[in-house]
Amino acid sequence: MLKFIKNVLLVALGGLVFLALIGIFLTITDDRTPEEITADRAKSDSIRVANDRAEFLQDSIQKANEENERLSAWNALTPNQRALKKIEDQFSSWDGSHKALKRATKEQLKNPDSFDHIETQYALIDTTSYRVVMKYRATNSFNAIITEAVQVDFSIEDNSVIQASKLY
């Protein structure tokens, strides 16, 4: 085993000596002056920095174009479509619940981990507000599973609560 390790080390050492000799040979055959070598290194560093900057600028332009496309699509919507989009953005694509209402309801429960969303429905009240009714199950103080529903009126503009009540 010791002989094997010795042979591996000798081969590795031989490889390092070979690489050193190649480096010396390349340095000897390089007929540039130290100033020219330094200038070439500086030039390659400048090229690398310029390429990095160009890549950064391309990424920035692409992001700006994507944002312009998004804004153009938003501006193409009618006021009613914009309002509907704002409302739909408040709902979870996973379970259909109103994100803020679900979070606020869970915070009010004695056992938030027992919260189980059943369904959520919404309807426009007028051009500035909408109503959400959410039905859910949770455990009460006696650890019994109960079904309840809450009704909340939200502002379309900033999603603030206008009025809230428990239905059952």
Report what the structure shows:
This protein is α+β, with helices and mostly antiparallel strands and 168 residues long. The protein has a domain at 94-166. Helices cover 54% and strands 22% of the residues. It has helices spanning 2-29, 34-75, 79-88, 99-108; strands at residues 116-124, 129-139, 145-155, 161-166. The chain has a four-stranded antiparallel beta sheet with strand order 1-2-3-4, with no helix packed on it. A hairpin with a 4-residue loop joins strand 1 and strand 2 (129-139). The mean pLDDT is 85.
Question: What would the keywords be for this entry?
Answer:
168 residues, alpha+beta, 4-stranded antiparallel β-sheet, 54% helix, elongated
User: How many strands, what sense, and barrel or not for the largest sheet?
Assistant: 4 strands, antiparallel
Helix content: 40-55%
The residue ranges in which pLDDT falls below 50 over 5 or more consecutive positions are none
The proportion of residues in beta strands is 15-25%
Major sheet: arrangement of strands: 1-2-3-4
Which structural category do the helix and sheet elements fall into?
alpha+beta
Mean pLDDT: 85
- Rounded to an integer in angstroms, the radius of gyration calculated over CA atoms is 34 Å
Order of helices and strands: HHHHEEEE
Q: How large is the count of helical segments?
A: 4
Distance between the termini: 81 Å
**How many β-strands, per DSSP?**
4
Query: What shape does the CA trace take?
Result: elongated
Summarize the structure.
The chain is an alpha+beta fold and 168 residues long. The protein has four helices and four strands; from the N terminus they run ααααββββ.
